[in-house]
User: Fold these one by one.
Assistant:
Number 1:
Amino acid sequence: MGLLSGTIFDRPPHCERCEKPETECKCPPLEPVRRAPGKQMARVGVEKRKHGRMMTVVRDLSPADNDLADLLTKLKNACGAGGTLVDSNLEIQGAHADRVRSELQKLGYKVKP
Ligand SMILES: [Zn+2]
């Protein structure tokens, strides 16, 4: 019994899009697949920094799934405050947890209660 007959081992790998052997394939690389905001859960917290300054921090959003710089701009605008991207955390100056939560939800994100 030829267990392998008729399986993919019978021919070299072919591209699924253009059907050409992979050595001849000229297809552009696939766009990285981003998770939809509705599939992501953000964590929003307010932290006290030095000199008693309050900072609203958004965690758990992956840079692979989101344009974090763009998101930061939206949140800064919504809060009318400054902010920075620290690693993959969004930090907005001031205590704006409610504003940030509702803005994230407006954009379709889930926010941890
Ligand atoms: Zn191809």
Number 2:
Amino acid sequence: MNLTAEQIIRLYRSLIRIRKVEQKIEELYPRDEMKTPVHLSLGQEAVSVGVCSHLKREDYVFSNHRSHGHYLAKGGDLPAMIAELYCKETGCAAGRGGSMHLVDPQVGLMGSSAIVAGSIPHAVGAAFASWYRGDNRVAVTFFGDAAMEEGVFFESLNLAALRKLPVVFVCENNYYAVCSRLSARQVNERLTARAGAFDIPAYQADGSDLLSVYEQAGTAIAAARSGQGPVFLECLCQRWRGHNGIGDPGRENYRRSEDLDDAFRRCPVEIFKNKILAQNLAPEADIAAIDEAVDGEIEAAFLFAQQSPLPKKEELGRFLFE
Ligand SMILES: Cc1ncc(C[n+]2csc(CCOP(=O)(O)OP(=O)(O)O)c2C)c(N)n1
Ligand SMILES: [Mg+2]
């Protein structure tokens, strides 16, 4: 792959930013000031970055409960995201949504849904609108392996294939739905085969390896944009933490030890950084400078969130249908 040093640096910045933001959330969560459940994407960061790096600002992304990486990689505003976790008026959903309802339409992050598979049909609808207007946008929907067990997944694939809509279905296959493993839920674990049932081209990437995701996503997104119809991209990855909240997943006895070993042996940040340095893709000093700048940005975002006002009591019903 021919990437310039500038592109490599941009990818690294996006990757380390998600990692560091989530580590900061973990550090401060025990203070109980963030009144929202959190689903961390530690270990899965490369998927968001590898996919979103191919998107234009006006392309659409629809996210799920594990939303932080998608939001940040698509260009969502960091202070507004942190303020949302603190349920503040300055949050990206005005403090009413929390971590599972991040939204920033200005940059094409159209919404996140706590309903498993909930945003898959939304992406199909957005792609339909784009096709109808002829504005050449693609719509990406991120979902987990368990979302592929919902009826709406199949309905969405069928309609998208039938109308040749520019949808990119991205499955982050971390093998688990809360605490049940894929092998305990499905006869056929080859998820790409389900796309094949609708004649949708399927791609697979190593979700721990940013360059693998970047390469596969590039081909998949280009195909969707060229009018050939929807594509499916499966990214194999491992989440580092429990299903939600913070802490060590090792204390939970449902995880196979080989999954956990695999997870911690294959750190997306380390894999990418080692490649950069081994192949001299960018100067080491630039990497260190990014780490420092990102730390400062995160400090400022948390301060902004902590100092922001809560929604006024009398306005809690605002934004609700009456
Ligand atoms: C329709 C629906 N059913 C069940 C739940 C409860 N639930 C929340 S997350 C989750 C598992 C999701 O697993 P997966 O789609 O693989 O995503 P991951 O958490 O692994 O990223 C479940 C069952 C829900 N939110 N919505
Ligand atoms: Mg899963």
